[in-house]
Every structure is written in structure tokens, then in C-alpha cells.
């Protein structure tokens, strides 16, 4: 399995936003939407061995985490609007702490915080922090069930980084230039695909 954790620092936690305003009114939810597409889409297919955790931290109902599970996913289309709709439908579902509520096939909403997500996924695989001062990914031996952690258009806060570093993650760099979060995910997939081919 490949796991991705994306921190949406201002991403909406209620479904009250308009689908034509995901970059503004939804707190840069557009970044998380593009990350979902990068996590799962192949040409004419979806990756089944991927789970994406969108940690939404904006608004009065924070935190919430929307989880996409590749092996169950249905109704995921390449356009951003329909992916935004899947996220919004998840955020509209009532959910209590400790619950994981299914909103559509392969899409769930929980009240997990970033720290909760780290704790859960650290039991499933090795945490890998995508960071510019890390080991070059081309010199890196990818673990069996990597859990890739990245920010949105902001780096993790000092508190988030401290929580992450407490798990002693590997740190990897994807190249000489800073990339968008969704592009980082495609590079990671490509590096792993080449080695598994």
C-alpha cells in the first residue's frame, strides 16, 4: 500500500462552501482536490493500492479528515468539481469522535486530527516526510508500505512538524526545485512504479 497524508491548513470542515469557490471560500480545498486526483488516476484506470488522508483544519468544525480508499473507490472523475463534490458530501455527514462514516464508495469522513492520523498510519507503515533538505529520492530505498506526509501551500507548522518528527520519519527530497503538493505525489508514484516494474 501507499498512503498519503495532506495537511489542509485552512481547508473547510463543513460542506457549506460553493463548488465554484473551492480555492477561496473552501480554504484552498482546490489543492487537496488535485492531490486526490494525483494519488489515484492512471490513464483509463485508478490505483487500487493507495489511501489518501485529507486533514482539513479550517473553520469551526475542525479538525476532520476525509479518507479516500483506492480499492473501494467509485464515482471519482478527473475533473476537480466532481472530486470537490465527493469531499463536500463527506463533510456534510454527521460524524462523532472515533467514528468513520462512509459518504460514498471509498470515501469516508472522520474527526481525526493530524496527530491522530499519524498515530493510526504509523502502525501501517513507515512515515516518509517530503522535505527539501531530505535524502534525494533517487538514492532512497522506499519501504514496503510508505506513509508520505506533505503540506498544502504551507509547510507543516512547528507543532505539526514536531508531532511528525516524534515518529522518526525518513526525509526525502524530490528534486532541486520546490514542487506543488500534487506534483510531488506523481513524482513519488513514478519513482516507486519504476522500481516495481
Structure notes:
The structure is a single chain. This protein is α/β, with parallel strands linked by helices. It contains 5 helices and 10 strands; from the N terminus they run βαββββαββαββαβα. It has helices spanning 29-40, 80-92, 114-122, 158-165, 181-196, and strands at residues 2-8, 41-42, 45-46, 50-56, 64-69, 100-104, 107-110, 127-136, 147-150, 170-173. Helix 1 crosses helix 2 (80-92) and helix 1 (29-40) packs parallel to helix 5. The mean pLDDT is 96.
Outline:
This protein is α/β, with parallel strands linked by helices and 197 residues long. The protein has helices at residues 29-40, 80-92, 114-122, 158-165, 181-196, and strands spanning 2-8, 41-42, 45-46, 50-56, 64-69, 100-104, 107-110, 127-136, 147-150, 170-173. The two termini are 15 Å apart.
Mind sketching the topology for me?
Elements: E1 2-8, H1 29-40, E2 41-42, E3 45-46, E4 50-56, E5 64-69, H2 80-92, E6 100-104, E7 107-110, H3 114-122, E8 127-136, E9 147-150, H4 158-165, E10 170-173, H5 181-196
Parallel strand pairs: 1-4, 1-9, 8-9, 8-10
Antiparallel strand pairs: 2-3, 4-5, 5-7, 6-7
Amino acid at each position: 500500500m501507499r498512503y498519503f497524508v495532506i495537511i489542509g491548513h485552512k481547508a473547510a470542515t463543513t460542506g457549506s462552501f460553493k463548488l465554484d469557490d473551492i480555492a477561496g471560500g473552501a480554504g484552498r480545498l482546490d489543492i487537496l482536490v488535485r492531490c486526490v486526483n494525483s494519488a489515484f488516476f492512471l490513464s483509463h484506470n485508478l490505483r487500487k493500492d493507495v489511501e489518501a488522508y485529507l486533514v482539513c483544519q479550517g473553520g469551526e468544525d475542525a479538525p476532520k479528515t476525509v479518507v479516500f480508499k483506492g480499492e473501494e473507490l467509485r464515482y471519482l472523475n478527473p475533473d476537480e468539481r466532481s472530486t470537490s463534490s465527493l469531499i463536500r458530501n463527506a463533510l456534510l455527514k454527521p460524524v462523532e469522535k472515533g467514528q468513520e462514516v462512509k459518504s460514498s464508495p471509498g470515501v469516508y469522513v472522520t474527526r481525526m486530527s493530524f496527530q491522530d492520523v499519524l498515530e493510526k498510519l504509523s502502525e501501517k507503515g513507515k512515515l516518509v516526510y517530503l522535505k527539501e533538505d531530505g535524502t534525494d529520492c533517487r538514492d532512497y530505498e522506499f519501504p514496503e508500505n510508505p506513509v508520505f506526509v506533505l503540506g498544502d501551500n504551507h509547510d507543516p507548522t512547528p507543532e505539526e512538524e514536531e508531532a511528525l518528527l516524534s515518529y522518526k520519519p525518513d526525509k526525502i527530497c524530490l528534486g532541486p526545485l520546490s514542487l506543488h503538493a500534487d506534483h510531488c505525489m506523481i513524482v513519488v508514484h513514478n519513482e516507486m512504479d519504476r522500481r516495481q516494474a
